[in-house]
Amino acid sequence: MSTFQDLGLNKDLLQAITDLGFEKPSEVQEKAVPILLNSETDLVALAQTGTGKTAAFGFPMLQKIDVDSRTTQGLILSPTRELCLQITNEMKLYGKYCKGLNVVAVYGGASITEQAREIKRGAQIIVATPGRMKDMISRRLVDITKIEYAVLDEADEMLNMGFKEDITSILSHTPDDKSTWLFSATMPREVAAIAKNFMYNPQEITVGRKNESTSQVSHEYYLVNARDRYQALKRLADANPDIFSVIFCRTKRDTQKVAERLIEDGYSAGALHGDLSQNQRDLVMKSFRNKQIQMLVATDVAARGIDVDDITHVINYQLPDEIETYTHRSGRTGRAGKTGVSMVIVSKSEVRKIKSIERIIKKQFEKKDIPNGMEICEVQLMSLAKKVHHTDVNHDIDAYLGDINALFEDTSKDELIKKFFSVEFSRFYNYYQKALDLNISTSNDDHKDSGNSVRYFINVGKKDGFDWMSLKDFLKEVLELGQDDVFKVEAKDTFSFFNTEKGLQEKVLGFFNDFKYNGRFVNVEISENRGRGRKRDRNRGKRRDDRKGSFNSGKKGGRRSEGASKSRRSKSGDIASSRPRRSRR
Ligand code: ADP
Ligand code: MG
């Protein structure tokens, strides 16, 4: 095991490292730093989140640049503003004894002229998000034609976020003989392509699974009905009173909604997603770091690079679209030698994804049950008892003790304890005493249905680029509905089906009365088939079809069954054309 000295770092950096309290290099630092210090080479480094990648490229870059020159020599591209600021901050800390060093962060949403001014003062290193960087290049506010080192940090994530073209364009403004260092947690095809097309004979290092942070994370999943997701989340939180967690949702809307519901329900929660202003995001992150927020509900993009060490739980409220993203999520916990739990709430339709994830992370998930009400009451009660036991007495209450003692004069210690704990216990008890079992078994193939839902037909499907997940997101988005309000979404080629609770029927039909998607009217009608019992329905559908008028009138509440919709479509070709067109106000 080597020391930072062994890696060949200079005195200024070693001093800063001592100040930071880093005792020994992490594995990726141990491998990357000597290579980058001692040769001018391209490098591909694969290492999980939290393994110290910033210093792995930061130390060599700081040692190699000429701080006496004002020329921009190093460019670090990173996917998000948060990460960009974090790297800039980290680089400044590492380089605090490098006299004359100027590191500038360039990212969207802040004044471009101010950033340009900072660069003009002479920035040897620029840390940038691709979008803003491209913008600055095209406005000639920055000169990267002389850079010697280009870092693509979190390359997989940058490509995930669609920055490929921006990166290509940015790199085309840099000299051919620079060194390119690519850092990534995973190596999907797109990253390999970048390495192939933009790098010359790169050396490769991989930091295996032995890295401390991920081996400290255990993985659990909980199988519930999609509509019980939120209740399940609450129970997981209640069963872990000291939880300090990041909860991942797939969309900004869900992120916001889940956070709002949690807050309404009395949890210390906050939302972090791209629709918030920077100021709002900074505030949320500040409260989270200070532990004023126990549950941070976040999108993958916004949570990227969050560097908070004590996260006890990562909760996958919904699984990510890309399985690789799961690695990033679970890497938020179990950092800095601590243990962590990554929990996944899945519905039956997603449960097969767990297997795919297991293959990728090479670890087993434990299937666990959502705690029942009584279990939660017990946990809460014991947690309170321990808290009381450990509490330091506040002597400012001494003055009132006389009155309090008088009040309990005739109460025994036993009785007093019972009463005291009942105060807290009853709160949970009352809430949970009638709580249902949220767990469902994998064997039962039928979705539970309250019998209170409506099934709709909609004339968009896979041909319009939807799969069931994106259609569900789309419906929730346009209808402004909550995460589990739309369910049993089934995308066919040119049409699809979905369910909502009956109470939403009017809203859904009303909304789609005159709604256009890609220039085409979207037609939503009630499908007679509430569940998925095809056979029976097909016959009924045919009968309906004969009496065309009933659903061809374009009025709300027209009926169509799953079986009928098929034959209907083949007759008229274009479902949308059969309804009156009205323009949207
Ligand atoms: P990554 O980019 O791989 O996700 P970071 O570079 O953000 O990881 O590092 C994660 C955390 O570990 C940061 O807080 C960083 O300051 C700290 N760190 C980095 N290297 C070391 C080290 N050698 N010893 C202790 N802490 C370190
Ligand atoms: Mg990093």
Automatic annotation (TrEMBL):
Residues 34-205 form the Helicase ATP-binding domain. It comes from the Bacteria. Gene3D superfamilies: 3.30.70.330, P-loop containing nucleotide triphosphate hydrolases. CDD domains: DEADc, RRM_DbpA, SF2_C_DEAD. The keyword Hydrolase applies. Residues 530-585 are annotated as: Disordered. Residues 2-30 form the DEAD-box RNA helicase Q domain. Residues 532-542 have a biased composition (Basic residues). Pfam families: DbpA (PF03880), DEAD (PF00270), Helicase_C (PF00271). A motif (Q motif) lies at residues 2-30. Keywords: ATP-binding, Helicase, Hydrolase, Nucleotide-binding. Residues 228-385 form the Helicase C-terminal domain. One of its GO terms (cellular component) is cytosol. GO terms for molecular function: ATP binding; hydrolase activity; nucleic acid binding; RNA helicase activity. Belongs to the DEAD box helicase family. This is DEAD/DEAH box helicase. It comes from Hyunsoonleella flava. The lineage of its organism: Bacteria, Pseudomonadati, Bacteroidota, Flavobacteriia, Flavobacteriales.
